[in-house]
Amino acid sequence: MHQKLFYEDPYITTFSAQIGKQTTDEAGRRYVVLNQTAFYPTGGGQPFDTGTLNGVAVTDVEEMNGEVRHFVEKEVEEEVHGEINWVRRFDHMQQHAGQHVLSAAFEDTFAYKTVSFHLGQDVCTIDLDISLLDEAEAREAEAYANSIIQTNHPIETKWVNKEELAQYNLRKEVSVAEDIRLVIIPDVDYSGCGGTHPASTAEVGAISILKWENQKNHMRVHFVCGNRVMEQLHEKQKVVQGLTNILNVPQVDLVDAANRLVLQTKEYEKTVDELNSRLLSYEAKELLQSADTIDNQKVVQLISNEYGMKEIQKLAKTILSTDPFVVVFLISEKENKLQIVCGRGAELELDMNRALKEVLPLINGKGGGKKDFAQGGGEAIRSAEEILIELVKVSLQ
Q1: Are 161 and 102 in contact (CB under 8 A)?
Q2: Can you give the pLDDT at residue 230?
Q3: Residues 377, 365: contact at Cβ < 8 Å?
Q4: What's the rounded Cα separation, in Å, for the pair 40 and 15?
Q5: Is the model's pTM score more than 0.70?
Q6: Based on the domain organization, do 230 and 298 belong to the same domain?
């Protein structure tokens, strides 16, 4: 354990070491093993440290087969000088210690146990062994956790054996039988943990619960600690300020203003849909009036670069509901794609699905439907005019 300098002092940011091994893993990634290291490897819900070895970037750190592997971008020369990315390390220390405090707060206040922890790049989560959490409970636990932080409890670590565990009121059983490391916040939390933590709860700074949600019969709580609280505050303040400027209302009225805007938008969308329906009805009448007669069959044909699939489907159905003896072939030509709708009136026996599927291979297309109505699309590797001619030909055979 003496090789893991992050356990001796988590505040170490630079160190010297000798290379014990330098090779590649099964995936061809180069890694270095040192006789001692301050780089924390991924484990226990905490991500790895980043930094450099002789100026070479360390992109990942893993502990495998009893060795800490530093994955690097290129070969590292002997007489290693290592530097830890302190901003990332201290952030992880704040988040991990904050998790201990928040989990203790939920358990001590409501007897809600934590079953898992994830330290994410932007947000952390704990899963509580419950199926429901209300606003009052979340805020009470948050307030209690912050009071623990402000009381400035020391955070201690201690190596013990299995027999010594009985002396401590652990929140859950440890997962190892030897080299057991405890993280202790006196009178607050006693947990087996291999992560890095600051020397006191005051260095956690603050804890903010952002939201919570159901996750596989557990309640997942999203939270941030320390400097991330300020980052979240600044980010949200920027959004709030932007919305107050756009909506021209004070912050306290933002929700009401947003709700009014959503309702107005829905009304506008409804009006637009109604107007589109009217437009398509007029278009349907005009197309019927100008329909062609091919092989004694009344045929409506249209190639459009304005309408999309939704519009040509609606247009085709409007035409077919008006005249039960008509055949309809509509093609939308947009963004190097062809979308096809073909249909026949209720009094006809033509198989539009068969016709469509004979044409679709010409454009590497997919689609289908029923005998009376089918739709599909593909690439515009053939012109819409060619496809329309082929559709009419195979349909009326």
Answers
A1: no
A2: 95
A3: yes
A4: 13
A5: yes
A6: no
